[in-house]
Amino acid sequence: MSGLIDLLAGKGNSLIGSVLSDAEAVSFVEAHFPGKAYCLVADWTVIDVSVSDEQTKMLAP
Q1: How distant, in Å, are the alpha carbons of 3, 32, 43, 46, 54 from that of 21?
Q2: CA separation for the pair 40, 10 (Å, rounded)
Q3: Whole-angstrom distance, CA of residue 59 vs CA of residue 51
Q4: What pTM was estimated for this model as a whole?
Q5: Residue 26 contacts residue 8 (beta carbons within 8 Å)
């Protein structure tokens, strides 16, 4: 469990997201992708997991 806590609480690489306000982002999406679903997300974390071919086979349904 401590490994998971370290992973989620550890320092990672910061990435700059959009400079648009929420309202501007919604307007942009509605103008360029009408009828498509979207989700605005703030303070998110991306975890890039590398696994071997053997592990991939174990994870696949």
Answers
A1: 35, 16, 14, 21, 44
A2: 24
A3: 10
A4: 0.55
A5: no
CB count within 10 Å of CB 26 equals 13
DSSP conformational letter for 20: S
Q: Contact, 26 vs 40, CB < 8 A?
A: yes
Alpha carbons 56 and 49: distance in angstroms, whole number: 11
| CA-CA-CA-CA dihedral for 48, 18, 26, 40, to nearest 10 | 30
Q: What residue has token string 């609480």? A: 9
What is the spatial distance between Cα 20 and Cα 51, in angstroms, rounded to a whole number? 35
pLDDT per residue over 7-23, tens digit each?
777 777 888 889 999 99
